[in-house]
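Repro:
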Amino acid sequence: MKLIIAIVQDEDASRLVSSLMNEGYSVTKLATTGGFLRAGNTTLLLGVEDDRFQGALNVIERICKSRKQIATSPSPVAGTSGVYVPYPIEVMVGGATVFVMNVEQFVKF
């Protein structure tokens, strides 16, 4: 058995949870916050049997695509100290960060 921890952008989370559940996977959804853009994201926990593992990864890969987004980044104003003006930059967001762990024991009460 494997534990899949998938961190996805909020924009993809609902569609991903629906798709996983339609495929017969049980999913636990946790609201989390990312560090770089301070944007909301969602962490999903899935316990899957070894023979269904690749199928779960395929669903995650199909739904969670990377895309470009405009974000504001602070920039110091020339000649002043401690004054920052935001300017837009293009960053890649989306996709999924997936961690996989082997599970020695699973108990459900």
